[in-house]
Write a structure and sequence with these properties.
Blueprint: E1 16-21, E2 36-41, E3 50-53, E4 74-77, E5 84-89, E6 111-116
Antiparallel strand pairs: 1-2, 3-4, 5-6
């Protein structure tokens, strides 16, 4: 076995690839045909950042007697490389289907996009 230690650094990075090559043999051994092994370290921590809801993911509201607005806050953390677009849809109610624009439960908009700039 060849043991290699990958060090976990604090940087958000794109995928990195390196090779391990067998370069010689002694004691009568001969190197075979497969002398190179490629190792890819997957990108870490999403270089463009990680986006999530900042507030609770489960919100319970009383049945309103007039139109009520709910604010959901998005947070982008980690490395903030480049502009990012987050698309969203409302699903339901009580289903996994995308809510159509013409419905009797939720007013416009029922879908859209949110943008984070390059920071």
């Amino acid at each position: 076995f060849i043991y290699i230690t990958i060090i976990d650094d604090e940087e958000s990075e794109f995928a990195e690839q390196f090779e391990i090559q067998l370069t010689g043999a002694t004691g009568g051994a001969v190197l075979g045909l497969h002398l190179v092994s490629q190792v890819t370290i997957a990108r870490s921590d999403s270089p463009q950042g990680i986006v999530r809801f900042l507030n609770r993911t489960r919100i319970i509201l009383p049945n309103p007697d007039r139109p009520t607005e709910v604010s959901l806050v998005l947070e982008r953390t980690g490395r903030l490389l480049g502009e990012t677009q987050i698309d969203w849809d409302i699903l339901g109610p009580n289903s996994e289907e995308v809510l159509p624009p013409l419905n009797s439960d939720i007013g416009d908009p029922v879908n859209g996009s949110f943008y984070f700039g390059d920071e």
